[in-house]
Write a structure and sequence with these properties.
Length: 162
């Protein structure tokens, strides 16, 4: 098995990072890089997550999305439990190599959210006015869940940290 860091070039200069042809990702102070994941065909935003060097290596090597869970402090292979594996069709890195974009096909029902919706971005926020009192009200843009999380995950703890 190749060490993740051997796959990545050292960050030497702005020119090398922004115009070069070697992968030289910049991980944050926690060793993480943000990832946005979209549907290959529709372009719909499915989720936002993080990768550490090992998750990035596993994603490149396997062609299936691996993320790092900040709440569980562990790498997870997306779909290993649910069967909703994300097959990477294209993987990009931004100009200063501190964010990753995955374009994926999702197995099964096509859901990517552990809550059961297709996208983790299933609610919208109002724009242009603040509420007169109380918290901002969210509007559900997806109303039908594609799977029942209790059936898929059983009694597994909710991966979302409050």
């Amino acid at each position: 098995m190749t060490e993740a860091t051997e796959l990545f070039a050292a960050r030497i200069s702005v020119e090398q990072v922004e115009e070069g042809s070697e992968l030289a990702p910049r991980f944050d102070e926690n060793g993480l890089i943000p990832v946005v994941t979209t549907d290959w065909e529709s372009g719909e935003l499915l989720m936002h997550g993080y990768m550490n060097a090992e998750a990035l290596r596993r994603t490149i090597e396997s062609g299936e999305a691996h993320y790092f869970s900040r709440s569980r402090q562990a790498i997870w292979h997306k779909g290993a439990t649910s069967g909703l594996v994300q097959t990477v069709r294209e993987m990009r890195i931004d100009d200063d190599q501190d964010a990753v974009w995955l374009r994926v096909d999702v197995a099964g029902s096509g859901a990517s959210c552990h809550v059961g919706y297709r996208s983790c971005f299933y609610r919208s926020l109002p724009v242009g006015a603040m509420p007169p009192a109380g918290p901002v009200a969210l509007q559900f843009e997806e109303t039908d869940k594609l799977f029942d999380p209790a059936e898929v995950y059983g009694d597994a703890p909710n991966p979302t940290k409050l």
